[in-house]
């Protein structure tokens, strides 16, 4: 995300970038890289007691208590993201969609369900679309015992993106996208 954000800024394809990091770990890398870059605003919702123990300073950090569940997690996100978009007025968003927030994750310490994770992704993507802000989504985190749970959570993110941004492809059937890409 940092390399892509720098590229967009250098090529003058974006003037203001918002990084939305919803992985269970603090977005310490982007926070440190962009600490003195006013054109990039970093937002991290992360487990308070999770790695890294030393946290960098994002523009907005929201440390979450161990065991937070869907309703409380989503309430925070639903309040924060629209406010930040109004405040920052980004013309591009990078979204770190970590699935280590899941209640099945061995290391995450949060208790968000698969449905809660899907609701999170739907909200972020819909908010970007409604505000006509391009978004790049990155997978992140995921240490559930069953790899199928991790795959399902990540697949949900991209299913939602396909549905929200490419409805005509979604309704036209699975063969349309390869035809469009291959010519």
UniProtKB/TrEMBL annotation:
InterPro entries: HDAC_classIV, HDACs, His_deacetylse_dom, His_deacetylse_dom_sf, Ureohydrolase_dom_sf. GO terms for biological process: epigenetic regulation of gene expression. Gene3D superfamilies: Histone deacetylase domain. The keyword Iron-sulfur does not apply. Pfam families: Hist_deacetyl. Its EC number is 3.5.1.98. CDD domains: HDAC_classIV (cd09993). One of its GO terms (molecular function) is histone deacetylase activity, hydrolytic mechanism. The keyword Hydrolase applies. Transmembrane segments: none annotated. It comes from the Bacteria. Residues 1-156 form the Histone deacetylase domain. It is an enzyme of class 3 (hydrolase). Keywords: Hydrolase. Belongs to the histone deacetylase family. This is Histone deacetylase. It comes from Adhaeribacter pallidiroseus.
């Amino acid at each position: 995300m940092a390399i892509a954000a720098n590229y967009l800024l250098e090529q003058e394809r974006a003037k203001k970038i918002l990084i939305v990091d919803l992985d269970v770990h603090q977005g310490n890398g982007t926070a440190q890289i962009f600490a003195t870059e006013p054109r990039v605003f970093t937002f991290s919702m992360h487990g308070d007691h999770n790695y890294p123990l030393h946290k960098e300073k994002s523009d907005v950090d929201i440390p979450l208590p161990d065991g937070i569940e869907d309703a409380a997690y989503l309430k925070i996100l639903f309040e924060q993201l629209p406010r930040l978009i109004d405040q920052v007025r980004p013309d591009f968003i990078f979204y770190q969609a970590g699935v280590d927030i899941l209640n099945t994750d061995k290391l995450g310490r949060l208790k968000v369900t698969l449905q809660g994770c899907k609701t999170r992704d739907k909200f972020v993507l819909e908010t970007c679309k409604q505000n006509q802000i391009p978004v790049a989504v990155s997978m992140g985190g995921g240490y559930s015992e069953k790899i199928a749970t991790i795959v399902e959570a990540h697949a949900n993110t991209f299913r939602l993106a396909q549905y929200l941004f490419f409805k005509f492809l979604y309704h036209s059937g699975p063969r349309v996208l390869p035809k469009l890409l291959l010519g």
